[in-house]
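Appendix B, example 12.
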Amino acid sequence: MLGSVVLYAVQAAYSSDLAKAAENVAFFYIPFGLLFVLLREVRWTREGIAVKSWDDYPILGFAEIPEIEVVLLNHPELPGLGTGECAAGPTGAAIANALHDALGVRARHLPLTPERIAREM
């Protein structure tokens, strides 16, 4: 679809004293971050929030999750500080910056829908 953001691969680097745990948690939180950047938004009607059930809540299918590569940096002397959870925020920033690099579009509102991207162009 014209204006859609398509991700083929995600790379993340972690330095943690819990290397395997960091890797496992990253495989959850990176797709979680993708959801917020590409799909999730609170929709409102006059009656309140429009999303009333899980049937109305967008999620990524397995086929939509890009290849994820986690690089573990060996620094066992450093403590783990929110190792996996911190992937959600930088994931969004990386996608927004890649959009800017590719199209010159600086996205200021999420999710990055085709309509929002087209308006910014």
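The beta strands are 9-15, 44-45, 48-49, 67-73. The helical segments are 19-38, 88-103, 114-120.
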